[in-house]
Amino acid sequence: MSDQSLLTAAALGLLEGLTEFLPVSSTGHLLLAGHFLGFESAGRAFEIVIQLGAVLAILSVYAGKLWRVFSTAHRDPQARRFIIAVAIAFLPAALIGVLAHGFIKNVLFETPMLIAINLIIGGVILLFVDKWVPAPRYDDAMDVPLGTALGIGLFQCLAMIPGVSRSGATIVGALTLGVGKRGAAEFSFFLSMPTMAAAVAYDLWKNRDVLDGAAWAQIGVGFFVAFLAGAFVVKSLLGYVSRHGYALFGWWRIAVGVVALVALLAGF
Description:
about 270 residues, globular, 11 helices
């Protein structure tokens, strides 16, 4: 394994960490970057596993809140309902992820044109929702009702298609269902933990026979860099969206999608 491949893994890890919690599709960015850089991981496990590095960054930022929630759940109805809400939101994507794993990895992950188009469409939707979002009924992620949590979980299923964005789908779903901008982002953060932990565990199991030492080295480098970059984004994102909303990310999606689409049509 060359130093170049590790450098590419580090660059992709940085890209993953910077985009995982933004509604811009980290997987879409990774797959497009990998396509243009000529990077192809064994079983496409790299692109899935390093996402957990970014997600674990939440633990470094929200460790105190997570401890309070779980340590008080036995006597605090709000904490108990929040845990159940996240679990309910997690279930639809977990079910579809298992049933459609082969199609997602072997077909959708290998279609960069679809990813570029989805980035553009998602950007337009995000701009529309950010401007016309209904007045929030729930400002705090802890207050999201169980029925609303299920709706957010169904929106998350759309993120099985690369380019849609897991955080984008859950945030748009939350906004349209009456959750405030900060609460939508925070609920998406917490939902990412069981979702990505399950996705990584299942993907590693499915690819256990094709991952060699070189593949694990790339994953390790990408995982570590994604963790560091993810921690930076989590600390700064909530304050930004509370003040400015999500329009910037909608325009970013459209720009990246258009550039990628033009490059693909040009034969790159």
